[in-house]
Amino acid sequence: MTIPLGTHLPPAHPAPPPARADVVVIGGGIIGVTTALYAARAGLSVALVEKGRVGAEQSGRNWGWIRVQGRDEAEIPLVLEAQRLWAELDAQTQGATGLARHGVMYLATTAKDTARHEAFLTLAGKYDLTTRMLTRGEVDAMFPGHRGDWRSALWTPTDSRAEPFTAVPAIARLAERAGATLHEGCAARALDIAAGRITGVVTEAGRIACDQVVLAGGAWSSLFLAAHGARLPQLSVRATVAATDPLPDMFPGNATDSRFAFRRRADGGYTLAPGDFHEFLLGPDSFRHFGQWVRTWAEDPWSTRLVPAAPGGYPDGWSTPRRWDADRESPFERHRTLDPRPHAGRVERIRADFQRAFPSLPPVRIKAAWAGMIDSLPDIVPVIDRVAQIPGLIAATGMSGHGFGIGPGVGRVLADLLAGRAPGHDLTRFRFDRFGAARPARGPAL
Fold this sequence. Notes:
This protein has helices at about 30-40, 75-90, 110-125, 135-140, 165-175, 220-225, 285-290, 290-300, 330-335, 345-355, 405-420, and strands at about 25, 45-50, 65, 105-110, 130-135, 150-155, 160, 180-185, 190-195, 195-205, 205-210, 210-215, 235-245, 255, 260-265, 270-275, 280, 305, 365-375, 385, 395. By secondary structure, the protein is an alpha/beta fold. It has a single domain, classed as FAD/NAD(P)-binding domain (3-Layer(bba) Sandwich). It is globular, with a radius of gyration of 21 Å.
């Protein structure tokens, strides 16, 4: 069984876009909707355009974790702010985000796992995090009767979770109430560039005049950027997730080892996912960017299953156009929502592994399974930056599986950049140009 995750739902925001806005946000995931929210609250007129449905791609398909644990050091301040903002958003939506603070645990089965976890403690101390190491005995006490071969664990009790598919639409409604306009089923085809800078966005419903654009298109961002001459070595992996029927509450938080990850759900079941498995769908960009990715793949070659070709219409599909005219149908309209098939064999494996690890649970049954496409960059760190060769454009993409948790922090930072204010964080690590120079800006024929 699969979950449609918004793919076939009627639009909640069907109105046509305005003729003009201060800012156009491209993409209705967590980054886009929080950017729209905070930019509108900063007094800017904001139009968000989404080719499919708000929250229907990876922002509604992820594990739901909101963690500081295990982050790149540059992300830690952003996540700490995001955790505070998540609490505010949950209150403002009357609990619709499903926020629950029950901690994140990385379970170690080998000495190498333990050493990697211990290395993070240096950062935990630097930023005064609640993270600590648990002994085998402490792990056993938290999971009475378990049969996992866990020797230790990294534990951050103040990390949290939310419900992705309900959280993003709820925050989108906040953005509308703040004055932003949201437009589903409205693909952005191209940037309108005159005299070297942005003057608008051409959508399938017409042109929106604007001076600034935020591209938060997830897995689609690199295709859109490349059409305008701005190359980014972003690739996407397919990740499988499943949900169980309701089960006793044997652990209210989030945890993972090398085999499976799990978290308590608001509906009384558990979200399950492989801890060491994802699929890479080969396409032209995977060969184009091979040199920048080879080191990343070499660090963990066995966790990635190669699929010979991305499906037709996917951002890196072999038949997906790389150039198009802005007055005609674009690739973004031909494939409204990435709704990949989950890996059925892995769904059964994680179900069985979860059952074996916790034999006291009643029979674990899967009620739904789905998959999403995670936009990633070679260093597994996002881009949050102005694109120098396209004045007026800010890219927020390549979230590398971190986007849901960090989303409100990124949205607040982007809103301040749009308003001409200091973002309050050092964004050097998130530079667009850290992968090399791009070609001069151009765009689809207008």
